[in-house]
Amino acid sequence: MNAEEMVKNMTLEEKASLTVGSDFWNFVEIERLDLSRILVTDGPHGIRKQKVLGEEMGSGESVEATCYPPACLSSSSWDTSLVEKEGEAIGKEALAEGVSIVLGPGANMKRSPLCGRNFEYFSEDPFLSGKIAAAWINGVQKRGVGTSLKHFAANNQERKRLIGNSVVDERALREIYLAGFEMAVRRSQPWSVMCSYNMINGKYSSDNKWLLSDVLRDEWGFKGIVMTDWGAMNDRVEGIKAGLDVEMPGPDKANVDAVIKAVREKRLSEEDLDKVVLRIVETMLRARECKRNITYDKKEHHEIARYIASHSFILLKNEGLLPLDRKKSYAVVGEFAKKPRYQGSGSSRINSNYVDCPYDELVKAGYDVSYASGYSLAVESADSLLNEAVCLAGEKDAVIVFAGLSEESESEGFDRSTLSLPSSHNTLIESIVKVNKNVIVVLYGGSPFSMPWLADVGSVLLCYLPGDAAGEATVDVLSGEVNPSGKLAETFPLSLEDTPSYGNFSTSDNDVLYKESILIGYRYYDYMKKDVLFPFGFGLSYTDFSYEAIEMEFDDDKKMGTVRVKVRNTGECAGEEVVQLYVEKLKSRIFRPIRELKGFRKVFLDKDEVKTVEFHLDERSFSYYSVPLGRFDIEDGEYRIYAASSSRDLRLSVDIHVSGNISPEVMSWRIGDDFSLLFKDKKVPLSPDRSRLSVNSSLSEVMENRNAYEAFKPLIDSYVKPFEGRNDGMSRMMLAMAMDMPLRGASVMTGAMGIDEIKEKLETLN
Ligand code: BGC
Description:
Layout: H1 3-9, H2 12-18, E1 40-42, E2 64-65, H3 71-74, H4 80-96, E3 101-103, H5 126-142, E4 146-152, E5 165-167, H6 170-177, H7 179-188, E6 192-195, E7 199-200, E8 203-204, H8 209-219, E9 225-228, H9 236-242, H10 253-264, H11 270-288, H12 298-310, E10 314-318, E11 329-333, E12 351-352, H13 358-364, E13 368-372, H14 383-395, E14 398-404, H15 423-435, E15 439-444, E16 459-462, H16 470-479, E17 511-513, H17 522-527, E18 545-555, E19 560-569, E20 575-585, E21 595-605, E22 610-617, E23 623-626, E24 631-634, E25 637-646, E26 649-658, H18 699-703, H19 706-711, H20 713-719, H21 729-740, H22 743-750, H23 755-765
Parallel strand pairs: 1-3, 2-12, 3-4, 4-6, 5-7, 5-17, 6-9, 11-13, 11-14, 14-15, 15-16
Antiparallel strand pairs: 7-8, 10-16, 18-19, 19-22, 20-21, 20-25, 23-24, 25-26
Helix pairs in contact: 1-11, 2-10, 2-11, 4-5, 4-12, 5-7, 12-16, 13-16, 14-15
The structure holds beta-D-glucopyranose (BGC).
């Protein structure tokens, strides 16, 4: 029976049952029709399949798997074929584990360097993020396994992520916050998209018809299913009308019944339900085609993780100390040398097959190294460890310091509050430079941080979070076995005050105002002419590249262009360069970023080799989103195309004329103007009044009210209490999530109180 026939054969009850998961990780099955359940699991940089499905509300121990470089690092490769390989390997592990859909990739924009989940996201630039996301999806799906592009959309901070309202003007949504998703959908057709928890302009994503149907399906041509993030379903019936297919997790009998009732009472048409059910059945049948019972070679997959990591690390500074010199003696300091940070915390956390460490690999590679921990990952500061490391450093030719962000500071559920590294790490580096002039710093961490000691050290290698092969990959680059070729997929700012969302990010307010509009990341720093610590697109190599020529052919009628850039390796060894293409509108009459990334390509060049790299530009490369016209449009005039080695290292350029419109209604808004002018009727779409308790009140809001606390004690006891006082990362994240969870979501996550009982209690309380 094909999908359509199956749907025709289903009873209303069967159809409704499919719109909610059967448990934490499975879709519902219908035995009568031989429609088997399918298993979905996290994602995104490896498989997190729980050993006991459903245990601890999805946070229980998971099977062993390879932890590949998380998105913060893999995107720094700027290499779509490499990311596709990561996807293929993950797809294979998914098959081996019987997983039908991997919950990833995360394509949210990095609006602030402080977002606790930035390590799971690719970039501050939607073009780069979209291309990398598409490559990852294509890789996984090549194996016949599905993906779930998440978290759609405007989920750019962790604080209040379950109840917050992202207030974003339409142009910023279209050009920035939706654009990466759009590119990924158009280029890779993920099997599914996961909607975000938050509201966008006062409307929850889970029943937002404009988002899920008008934009995602009708405009972008998305063919798959939309599932909710875990516990994100606002109104199940409205969700069906909006195009939300599967509520996760399940079971949620109340919502299944609500769907049946709505159809019977003709508040929901059966045709709308059928559309949703057909998409679900098509996906389940597709999953049936997967090859099962395969195995994978753990060693081989470890090597893939190693290769991707070493080809993504970013050399930020090098005054001749790297690659390492076998004739020199090195002090290796910092506990990260033995226990590297290699992944972040939360739902993406992998139970790694095997993690190697830099110190052991340095020893294996035959370097003359001696170790001192310098700081402790367990305690705040330890003078004795610091002194021991400084003594050792003074005795050796050079020092390799391992430092970075702590495990606790980077997790789903929380945002950071500072750009600083732990003070023990900064103190260690600052003390060591006083006794040894040859200091190499190796850094781990999932997002930007400040480097107060930068001018005093010789070399800096940024490894972000490298995944399982942390040690081998780090030593591959330190030794010169691999020439570093990563480039920053985000700006490292000089200070928090400099960041575009400063003052409007992760505040105690439920409304998150995106007052910087389209100026995210380098778009903001360039527009505001701000200096940065390291610009977007920056990264050094052990060799040098010169950009020798640029030429462009452009067909103005078709708005299609081909740009050719000649690049030469002028240094002493082979290497890879990421050639970047930025487009700038000269003398623009509208508010727009100075220039934007519209192409990139990584190219391998032997010593002395010259290659011509080709790029294709299209209509979108020159467009901005015109709100009055309701579509992307081109401003008539001159455009400059730059070939660049980073967003602030523009090497060559060519000018062209692009004919377009100068729409008289284009807005005159500039950054700093009244934010409300960006919205319909000049009204900022704030979240609904929360003063009265409702099913959308969070457990923390409930816990502030004595009577409400008592009324909803079963939810609090089963969701909040189990995670209180536990110190592991997963429990801390679960606690943050529980506190933020609306009553409706807590009901589904715990099953401790039904929604009808909750509604009755609310009536009494209000
Ligand atoms: C996260 C998702 C994840 C899901 C299942 C949610 O809390 O936001 O990214 O896929 O849990 O673990």
